[in-house]
Amino acid sequence: MHRRILAPGALAAASLLLAIPASAASYSPGAPGIGDPYYPYYGNGGYDVSHYDLRLQYQPATDELAGTATILARTTQDLSSFDLDFLLDVSEVRVNGVKADFATSGQHELVITPKSPLAQGTQVTVVVRYSGVPSTKSAYGFDTWHRTPDGAVAADEPESAWWWYPSNDHPLDKATYDVSVAVPDGTQVISNGLLQSTSSKLGWTRYNWRQNKPQATYLTTLAVGKFDITTSTSEGGVPVVNAYSKDLGDNDGAARASVERTGELVDWLSGYFGPYPFSSAGGYVPNTTTGYALETQTRVYYSPKQFANGANTSVVVHELAHQWYGDDVSLKGWKDIWINEGFARYAQWLWSEHEGEGTAQELADYVYASHPADDAFWTVKPGDPGPDDQFDIAVYDRGALAIQALRNEVGDDAFFAILKGWPKEHAYGNASVADFEEYAEKVSGKSLSALFDAYLFEPTKPVAPAVKAVGAVAAVAQPKSWKQIEATNDVH
Ligand SMILES: [Zn+2]
Question: Which end of the chain, C or N, has fewer beta carbons within 10 A?
C-alpha cells in the first residue's frame, strides 16, 4: 500500500487549492431533478447522500414538527449550489459547519448556496434546521401527510418525504437513517428498522429508530400516535416489530390476525427470494382513513381498510414481497415500476397457489381471459406505463401475467433461480426492467426479448404462446383467491 507523503509546502498549496477553486467556471448549480423523465423535479443533481440523521419533535395536538436534519453526502460534480426537496419552513442551513444561503424555488425545491463552492468528489455535511405544520403544505396538488385523531403518518409513493424531512427524493439515491423523534409522553413513534432506545424528559419521550441498510426516501416512514407494539422473532430468526393503533375499532382483530403473521410470511417468502435482506420486519396499522398499503422498508404501512372484510394475508404477502422487489432492489427510474408491482402481485399468486386457492397459472389464465382484446387494460404497458398509469391495475395484473409467461417460457428450474438470484444480483442497489431482462436471459440461456416486448411493452393484448390458449371469460373459472387479491388493487 502506498500513501503519498506531502512536504509541508505542498500541504499548504493543497489547502489553498481547496479553498479557492482553480477554475471557478467549472462550478455550476446542481440540477433541480435527478433526471427521471416521469418526474423531472424529483430528486436532485450533483451529489449522493449516504446518511440522514433526523432529530425531530412533533406535537400531535397542533401538528407542529420541528427539528434538525443532518445529511451526509458526496458531491458528484463541482457545485456552486444544490437543491434539496422539501416543503417545511427552513430557518438555517449549514454546509460543512458554515452558514449557507438558501431560498425556495418551484414546487418543492430548497436551493442551497454554500459560502465556498464544493469540488467534485468531496464529503459534505449539510445541517438544515426547520419547523412547520406539514398538513398545511402541498405541492403539485399532493397533500400526503396524513393526520390521525392522535397523530400523523408519512407514507406515500412517490411523494412523502417533502412533508417531514429535506432529501434527495428519488429511489436512485438510497441512504441509511437515524430517525429520532420526541413526542408527548403516552404517544409512540414508529419508523423503519429497529428501535435503539427511548428516553423521557419533561413530559416528552424520544424514540430513536435506526435503519442500517440503504433505503429509498419514499420508503422512509414516520407514524406518531397511540400504538400497541408487539415484538417477536420469526422461526427463521428475523426480528419482527408490529404496531397497531389503539383506535382500530372493529378492524383490530382482522388487522392483528393478518400482520401478526409477518414472521411466518417473511420466512415463506425467503424460500422464493432468498435471505431476508434487513435487520427487522414488521408492519403498522394506524387509524388513518386512506385505503392503501405501502412497502415502507422493514415496517409496512397498512390502512385499517385493508382489514375491513376480515383477515387479509394476501396484502401482507404483497408488501413483504416488496422488501426484496422494490426495497432491497429498488427501481432506477419510476418507469421501472413493474420491477416492484409485477413481482409483489406475483407473490400473491404464489401464496394463492400455496393456500390451494388457485394456482399462478389459473390466475394468469383468468387475467388473460377477463380482458378482451379491445379492453383499455391492454393499452397500458407495464414496462413503461407513463406517470399517469404508474399504479394502474394493468401494471399489477398484466405485470404478473408477464411473470407467469416468463415462468412457462424458461421452465420452473430457471424461473425460480431467477426469482431468488435477482435480489442477490442487485442487493441494496437499483435496477431497471432492461436489467431484469438481461439477467433472466443470462440465467435461462434463452433470448427473451420477444416475450418481454409482447407482455411488457406492446399496447396490445399479447398473442399468448406462453399462457394457455383460452377463450371467453366464461371458459375460465374465477380462482378462489381472486376476490381477496382484487381487494388489494389499490395497494402500493
Ligand atoms: Zn405493491
Answer: N
CATH topology of domain 330-487: Neutral Protease; domain 2 (1.10.390)
Supply the pLDDT for residue 364. 94
Cα separation, 151 vs 188, whole angstroms: 9
Distance 294 CA to ligand 1 centre (A): 7
Residues of the chain with pLDDT under 70: 1-24, 464-475
Q: Thinking of the domain 1-149+162-180, which architecture would CATH place it in?
A: Sandwich (2.60)
CA of 33 to the centre of ligand 1 (A): 25
Cα(69) to centroid of ligand 1, in Å? 29
Q: Could you check whether 1-149+162-180 and 330-487 share the same CATH topology?
A: no
What's the gap in Å between 322 CA and the centre of ligand 1? 7
Q: What pLDDT, on the 0 to 100 scale, is given for residue 476?
A: 82
Distance CA 423, CA 344 (A): 13
DSSP string, 172-235: TS-EEEEEEEEEETT-EEE-SSEEEEEEEETTEEEEEEEEEEEE-GGG--EEEE-EEEEEEE-T
Calculate how far, in angstroms, residue 178's C-alpha sits from the geometric centre of ligand 1: 25
Q: Which helix (H) or strand (E) holds 373?
A: none
CA torsion 431→434→439→444, rounded to 10°?
150
Tell me 266's DSSP state.
H
Query: What pLDDT is attached to residue 464?
Result: 66
- Domain-wise residue ranges, the chain: 1-149+162-180, 330-487
* Mean pLDDT, rounded, of the chain: 93
C-alpha 239 – ligand 1 centre gap (Å)? 22
Quote the ligand 1 centre to 107 CA distance (angstroms): 27
Judged by DSSP in three states, 8 sits in helix
The whole model's pTM is what? 0.93
User: For residue 23, what pLDDT is reported?
Assistant: 58
Q: Under a CB-based contact definition with an 8 Å cutoff, are residues 57 and 181 in contact? A: yes
Q: In what order do the strands lie in the sheet with 47-59?
A: 98-99, 89-95, 123-132, 64-75, 47-59, 175-184, 204-215, 194-201
Q: What is the DSSP letter of 37?
A: T
Please answer whether residues 186 and 226 qualify as being in contact, where contact means their C-beta atoms are separated by less than 8 angstroms.
yes
Q: How much distance in Å is there from the Cα of 97 to the middle of ligand 1? A: 40
The SS3 of residue 145 is: strand
At 241, list the grid cell: 416489530
